[in-house]
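#struct-help
A.M.: can someone run this one for me? Single chain, 343 residues.
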Amino acid sequence: MLRALGAFAGVGVASLWAGCAAPTAAHESGGLPVPPSGVSGFAPAGTRRIEQIAPGVYLQHGLRGEIGPDTLGRTGNAGFIVGASGVLAINSGGSHRDGQALLAAITRSTALPLRGVLLTHAMQEFIFGASAFQAAGVPVLMHHDAARLMAARCEGCLKTLQRVLGADEMAGSRVPRADITFTAADAARALPDIGRPLRLLAPAAIAASPGDSAVFDDSSATLFAGALLDADTIPDVQDADLAGWHAALAALARLPLRRIVPGHGPVAGAGLVASVDSYLRQLEQRTAALLQAGTALSEVADAVDLPAFAHWQRYDSTHRRNASIVFLRQERALMLKDARHGT
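D.P.: on it. Structure tokens below:
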């Protein structure tokens, strides 16, 4: 039985998200398949750790740090959810080899069929493992807009990764083509039936990037947030619409969240939504003040100091770039406003 997210999450949510619940056979946490003991941490040394974070919910931890030879580009979180009749994977890793590792983890944890892999957004550390899934006959699902962005941009990303990480590490990797695409309007029908209530969340407007999506598992109140939320990591605003992002975060805050699997960083509680929103708002406020004061663009990256977030990963890289991006957008908006008023 399908049902709209708005009916579950409360007033205002339906206007922003398209939601889905897969068939709702009674499915309490205690009835979920239990993996064999030792599944958590079974990966060989040097590969990513896989952990069961709730009954039937598994996380493939992204490595801390930047994309480079030390992390092999495996910095994004991925995972999978086991239902009564199948499995859904969320994100695929940063290479064909990384995707194979996630596939092996799924096979070790359950004999149930893998019904699909959802790519939550078009970022390199989340998509290039999809070739391993498709080689195994597993369909790739992705928002239509994210799939278009991936097709337009990710050949260049793949070439960069081949140069930085080496041809051997990226062997078999290619830009995937989604087998199933959806939009905010029809997301309710996109998820495969795995015998467990899941909601596919797709903002009605651009948020962190074009075509963002996320998955909420009703049984465990776990959200796989994709690009919408990073934990202890500076979020990237390069492809974002900040107004849409704030609206998406407001909708997420109305979900009954128990735990969040962010795109990057450790598993977090519901408070992560407010933390990311606070960072974005303080960033906007600080750059607006600098613009008002006549600060030169060349000085903005150094001037936008936000001490409350200085301990987050990528503060010295992504945050500085964010500052310049937001400053330029605000400057352009001010110029257009002045032009309209003839000043």
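A.M.: thanks! The first helix runs from residue 5 to 9.
D.P.: also worth noting: Residues 1-46 have pLDDT under 50 and may be disordered.
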